Amino acid sequence: MSAYPAVVNSSLPGPQDITRTVLPNGITVLARSNFNSQSVVISGYLQSGSIFDPAGKLGLANFTSLVLMRGTARRTFQQIYDELESVGASLGFNASVHNTGFGGRCLAEDLPMLLSLLSESLQQPVFPPADVERVRAQLLTRLAMRDQDTGDVADLAFEKEIFGDHPYGCPEDGNPETVRPITRDELADFHRRHYGPRGMVVAVVGAVSGDQAVDLVHQALGSWENTDQEPYPPLPEIKPLAATVRRHIPLPGKFQTDLVMGTIGPRRSSPHFHAASLGNSVLGQFGMMGRIGDVVREQSGLAYYASTSLNAWIDAGSWEISAGVNPANLQKAIDLILSELRKFVENGVSQEELKDSQTNFIGRLPLSLESNSGVANALLNIERFELGLDYYQRYADLISAVTPEMVLEAARAFIDPDKLAIISCGPEG
Amino acid sequence: MSESILQTTLSNGLKVQLKEIHTAPIISHWVWYRVGSRDEAPGLTGISHWVEHMQFKGTPKLPAGILDKAISRDGGFWNAFTYLDWTTFFETMPADKIDLALELESDRMFNCLYDPQEVESERTVIISEREGGENEPLFRLGEAVQSAAIRQHPYHHEVIGEKEDLRKITREDLYQHYRRYYLPNNAVLCLAGDFDTQKMLNRIEAVYGGLPAGQPGPHPQIQEPAHEAEERLVITGEGETTFLQVAYPAPAASHPDFFAYTLLDSLLAGPSGLNMFGGGGISNKTSRLYRALVEKELAVAVSGGLQATIDPFLYTATLTIHPARRFEEALQAFDDEIRRLQDEPITRAEIIRAAKQARAMFAYGSENITNQAFWLGYAEMFDHYEWFLNYVARLEQVTPEQVQRIAQTYLQPVRRVVGVYLPEKGASE
Fold first, then answer.
1. CA–CA distance from B270 to each of A278, B265, B291, B309, B359 (Å)?
2. What pTM did the predictor assign?
3. Residue of A34, A78, A301 lying closest to B122 (CB–CB)
């Protein structure tokens, strides 16, 4: 293995410098110190994602998360933000499919304040009716803008196509017709039934010791209980596409077409995950966006961007190619991408291509972990996907162990060039 | 902001700034050129940005496709940006691989090929980038406001350039622009990260020292005449959302008024940080415009933009209008807030608060070595590194009277442009 870059394990987070504690009420606290800067990041999640959105009320989880800081039993909206902004701190919530996430940052001296605002927002939000309406108007405006954004529209249609009625196929921020009827009481009810300490994770990274971080979280959130907190519902099965679906969504007044095509990808716990990630890198990431970037952008000048991404979540994933092209070049771009996909599933990747991506994955790890938020993300990944505290120290070995055969197997397990969702959004076709 | 750095100039005029940071095994390397859209003649708008793209297309020694693979293979990342006054290229690499960055940047300062075929394929890529922008209502509005607010100075046009120019610019135009401005004595080289300053300086001398100085192309000497009457413009397009943008004149970044103006922007629309990587900003929910417009349900979002530039540019306030309101109502409330700044001096406490916010954002930005290297060169492009070092102190020194005078002199209705994006069904037909 001497051909691979040597990574100094001690600079990567591991059991020796990650503090992990589960509080008696079920909250997992992860912490890692960094005294190089005076700042601290907090980041984490609860089990109250859009997975709980009723069919006609898509966006309920997200709407709830956005009203948490609009007023608590102790403070008004302006008082909350005055505390935060006066010291240059930030805190915010949003919902994904499985979780409500939160994130904030401050100078180390202000960490107790930040944690107490987090705790108050989670435990004592009062959902003031006037604020609910203000947030609704902001949400509806954002949705109207989203529905005019060619990239967003193509993405949403793509996810619907491959995931159907599974929550992965539904927008977390909902749709105008599902957000409009949500009532203030439904937000409060969602909060009561789904927000609680069970399954909650908090990462604290920055100029604070691990023990102190745990103590501060314990003081802020250790006494929280919610006996009404509901377990996750069962998820519908995801059925693979039986044949290619090609759809163009016209948006008048646009000049460029956004293209999203692809299929279902591995879940994060899939044994194919690392091989698929490396294959994806060769296909549409490495260098100037891999083989696809090279053919579509560099050689043909067809697009401003063309790349692939592999998104692996808990229950499934997506493997997608996206590009922004002039409408006249759309079909040409699709054809080029299809031919690259065929080559990919027929021949896989060469030993040399694979090694390039392996050294890239291993070499860039320290870069992704230099900032507090980068480390906090890593800690949450470890927890969310049960990777083990030593995951980042084992990472180089895991990546180096992937062979071209494993990549080919992963490619064939997920990509069938005759069974893709191909969605475009732009001017009338 | 008091850490020591090494500042020196090589005999060929290349300015060098080095800062040792030993928090992670990473080095970030930046070359800044004093050329941007400010230096473009009519008919050649967008040429600086296009030249930046061509710099990635290879030299005889390092052909296209080799470099991006070499950077990625080592786990690094690179990119480039073109702005009004400057163009910059950076690589962030594992510390033991940084030599590649030195070699490639010194090579492409002189030896890029500008292959005619590559020029043609990049033409489509850049027009596609522009069309991606044209899909966005705020790009169209911003472009219209900027060109109405600045009539004679080259800041009149967007960095991306006018589409008709992008169709006509030739390989010769590009090559000449490259040769005219890409010279060691028109550049600043900045490195931050895990190195020994003296050893790094020796290496820089060896790699860059032999490059010949030249006579850099001229910069414009155009003084933009002041507007004498308010101008209003309306753009129509698809969608449901109305946007309002108000542009006032702003001084050069080196002008004594600039910091008081920055403070005014911070109070009016919320603080903006100088972080390009990591850190991000903080919310603006206690800013005067947010309280007067968003809390009063006249708008759903507000933002302010003051750019640090060589020549006087613009201060813009951008409002996303509440779906149930007309833009005239929001504009009236906006004007009331401007009048308040003109009539009543702000308090000392507001100044101290803004300085603390700035200090916190600098702490966030300093977690990231790429961002620290960015800071080394950024202020050199429109003033000096000291501008950056003294940023927080100069904010603290601002007086209430200065802010009031800025509001009275710069924020006059007769000196502004008011632009509106009005959604209209079928506008594009």
1. 42, 7, 11, 20, 14
2. 0.92
3. A301
